């Protein structure tokens, strides 16, 4: 279709060029071109053209992060329709649109073996209500000329929302403790099971004391088993693929601004199949309504 459209546009602009010559150059049949030219678009084809226009706009608006599954959610939310994933995938294929693919990173956090807890969570990543189970971790970022930054975040396993996060320039205990304080302030009655890896911040006495004060149950991944903390690792993977890896950051303030914007998007606008097409905070608000 696009080849025939290109032939028509070129022939309209340069009338001296023959259709036969253009078809020969682009390796399509002359009869096929005239059949396409005389074809009347069906209602379904017109609908697909409108859908493709919306898909292109959403793809551009969200920096190419939407795969066909999430694109289907966005399209249906925008149009209040119920298009199936196969149709959206086919139209994205016609448009040549693909989402950015996350790739696995081969590293895990080493342990200092101080105040180590059992793996109580045991990869049971489901919860029946908000604030039952939280996962937390810290990820490493860069800006400027090899300057370091760190993002500490806590994720609720009920709805997938980020309940608290802190961006700092030092990967120290205070970074993690401040994240805990923000989470507790936002959810003052919460006493969740909180799962982490065995990094030095989480095995520290300060972390032990604060989680005990907040009446939280500590759980920790086994040594070398990054999958034990998969939900928060998944969030960091999405953040880096859909935001952080798309540009180079010159300043700490620029990095923080984009993190703020992405986490707002993640909590309020990133619709998820696991939440029946709702964004994390939509799911959370529905549960407490």
UniProtKB/TrEMBL annotation:
A GO biological-process term: DNA integration
Pfam short name (any one): HTH_21
Gene3D superfamilies: Ribonuclease H-like superfamily/Ribonuclease H
Role noted for this protein: Involved in the transposition of the insertion sequence.
GO molecular function: nucleic acid binding
Domain Integrase catalytic: 126-288
Protein name as annotated: Transposase IS3
Entry-linked SUPFAM superfamilies: Ribonuclease H-like (SSF53098)
Database matches in PROSITE patterns: INTEGRASE
